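Hi R.,

As promised on Friday, here is the backbone we talked about, encoded as structure tokens. Could you run it through your design pipeline when you get a chance and send me back a sequence?
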């Protein structure tokens, strides 16, 4: 597969609402995502609102290694990637083929409404580049708009962490909103599988996954789409 440059957007937020509980990056989801990209030698850059090392959600940390079929990545490799995170305001979308908004409860507080985060996602959409998100990170798309200020989600097939999955956990009372509810409010054509089952929606340049079980197939869908785009460009070149 050709080499691509992909941006991984992660949360910088570490407090779970008004509780004393900590949150942050879902390292399990990030590990599956990174392993899939690394297997195809994709050039990966991490970014976050504050830059540098983001907080790690202790509920979704790694003891040592995540195995996903033939793919594995150790915690040290992920820490090195995250420690090198650039600030979102420093990112130029022209340098990347796609952006992946990574899951984690923290994303509900900063990536959904931080002006720099929203502006960067606006830039990727305006440049007709792939935007990929999974789990809670689908919530980062709710304030991204078209030129006429309508939501990019309106009329689009999308998925993200479901109300059922949220209610089955122990954090529903602490979060600012339910992802499913907000996607529906934005007039997205939301769909979901049963709790913790893989489900991916692909609508043009927008690729979303429901949960942790969906991360690998979400990234696979992005890689297939990027390869197809490269073939189309090669065929259209004089």
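Update: got your reply. Pasting your designed sequence below so it's all in one thread:
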């Amino acid at each position: 597969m050709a080499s691509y440059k992909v941006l991984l957007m992660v949360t910088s937020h570490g407090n779970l609402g008004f509780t004393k509980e900590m949150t942050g990056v879902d390292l399990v989801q990030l590990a599956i995502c990174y392993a899939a990209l690394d297997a195809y030698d994709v050039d990966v850059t991490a970014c976050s609102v504050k830059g540098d090392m983001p907080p790690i959600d202790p509920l979704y940390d790694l003891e040592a290694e995540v195995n996903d079929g033939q793919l594995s990545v150790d915690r040290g490799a992920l820490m090195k990637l995250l420690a090198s995170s650039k600030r979102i305001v420093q990112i130029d979308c022209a340098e990347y083929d796609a952006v992946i908004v990574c899951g984690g409860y923290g994303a509900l507080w900063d990536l959904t409404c931080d002006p720099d985060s929203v502006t960067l996602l606006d830039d990727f959409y305006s440049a007709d580049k792939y935007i990929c998100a999974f789990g809670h990170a689908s919530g980062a798309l709710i304030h991204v708009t078209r030129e006429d200020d309508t939501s990019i989600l309106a009329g689009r097939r999308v998925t993200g962490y479901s109300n059922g999955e949220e209610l089955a956990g122990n954090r529903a009372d602490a979060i600012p909103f339910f992802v499913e509810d907000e996607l529906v409010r934005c007039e997205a054509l939301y769909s979901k599988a049963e709790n913790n089952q893989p489900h991916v929606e692909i609508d043009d340049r927008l690729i979303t996954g429901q949960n942790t079980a969906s991360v690998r197939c979400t990234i696979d869908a992005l890689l297939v789409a990027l390869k197809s785009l490269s073939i189309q460009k090669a065929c259209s070149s004089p």
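One thing I noticed while checking it: The chain is about 30% helix and 20% strand.

Thanks again,
M.
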